[in-house]
Design goal:
The protein is an alpha/beta fold. It has two domains: 78 residues, Orthogonal Bundle (Arc Repressor Mutant, subunit A); 203 residues, 3-Layer(aba) Sandwich (Rossmann fold). The chain is built from 15 helices and nine strands. The strands form two sheets. Strands 5-4-3-6-7-9-8 form a seven-stranded mixed sheet, with helices on both faces. It has a two-stranded antiparallel ribbon with strand order 1-2. The longest helix is centred in the N-terminal third of the chain and has 20 residues. The radius of gyration is 23 Å and the shape is globular. The protein starts with 18 loop residues before the first helix and ends with a strand.
């Protein structure tokens, strides 16, 4: 009787790089980390670590899945396990420094992106059949903005005077509250998302700012819903104008013109936006190709800095300063309504 020799498996059967596995890993890692953050566990892991008792102190199925999630993160070098439980590796801490981007994408846009088959075939439409999760778009944007947007915006605000501000598209109101506290201003935050407004209301209460900060649930394009615009000397709008631009440049300029007309002379407009990718090799561009694509799903486009400046000028604002912040492709533009 003859026998057939079967070679022993090698330690690494891959003889060449297979890029699909990079995408496979990235998708799973992003989903796990965003899920742990949204579930309130990643912050605990960052600060104190998670003991085995903390993992087991939940319903059996949840405990099993949390344990499997942490072991997966160990396999990928994000988490280490020791006598006291699970903690982040240095690599894990580097990732978590930018976790807002993962929450924004997975938590905010994971639903619509999972329905691309329906969108590209016309079987469903974004905004009618499926839409983004406003709570985690706002939450992720607030997290990623702490290091990559807010410090740059605050530096610009140090060069102007204002006593009353309106944050259009305020999300969870973190920036609104920060600016009002740091500069002694009062303010109004406006957002279309009920979930974001709920988070904002809770943040206002925690800060003890109820007498100085008001949150309004409403469409940012309905300026009639925003109280006291004629007395407002600073309007902030972060990552909102591209949504107006989705209706065309004429709609964007018309919106800016209406806003300018309602503000007092000398009032400032602070805008944060993201430029589109420059058309180079995608692998050499962080974030902007994905940001542009997600907004294409929503039928929205992006402008480069020069076109944003031209739109603000046509809308009745003088462009005082344009700078690039810490977000890949990120822009901050400071405009001003002429004093006379």
């Amino acid at each position: 009787m003859s026998t057939q020799h079967v070679p022993a498996p090698s330690a690494s059967p891959l003889t060449h790089r297979r890029p699909a596995f990079d995408l496979f890993e990235g998708y799973a890692l992003s989903s796990v980390l965003a899920g742990l953050e949204i579930g309130g566990l990643l912050g605990t892991l960052e600060r104190d670590g998670l003991s085995e008792e903390m993992v087991l102190d939940r319903p059996p199925e949840a405990a099993n899945l949390l344990g499997a999630s942490l072991r997966y993160l160990v396999d990928r070098g994000v988490v280490r396990v020791g006598a006291s439980g699970y903690s982040l590796t240095e690599y894990g801490r580097e990732i978590c420094a930018d976790k807002g981007y993962l929450v924004w994408l997975v938590g905010g846009y994971g639903g619509p992106l999972s329905k691309l088959d329906k969108f590209v075939t016309g079987a469903a439409r974004y905004g009618i059949d499926y839409t983004r999760n406003g709570e985690w778009v706002a939450g992720g944007a607030a997290m990623l903005g702490r290091a990559d947007v807010v410090p740059y915006a605050v530096d610009l605000l140090k060069g102007i005077n204002f006593t009353r501000m309106v944050d259009i598209g305020c999300g969870n109101a973190r920036f609104l509250l920060l600016a009002c506290q740091q500069f002694g201003a009062s303010g109004v935050g406006v957002d279309l998302s009920p979930e974001a407004c709920q988070l904002a209301e809770e943040a206002v209460d925690r800060a003890g700012m109820r007498e100085r900060v008001q949150i309004v649930l409403g469409d940012a394009e309905d300026l009639d819903r925003i109280p006291g615009l004629d007395e407002t000397d600073l309007v902030v709008t972060f990552f909102l104008l591209h949504e107006v631009l989705g209706k065309g440049r004429e709609a964007l300029v018309g919106y800016l013109r209406e806003l300018s007309d309602r503000l007092p002379p000398g009032a400032h407009l602070l805008v944060a936006e993201v430029e589109p990718p420059d058309g180079g090799v995608s692998s050499r561009q962080w974030f902007t190709p994905e940001f542009a694509y997600v907004h294409a799903v929503m039928s929205q486009i992006l402008y480069p800095a020069q076109q944003w400046s031209e739109a603000l000028t046509d809308g009745g604002f003088e462009v005082a300063e344009v700078l690039r912040d810490g977000m890949p492709g990120g822009l901050i533009i400071l405009g001003r309504k002429p004093a006379s």
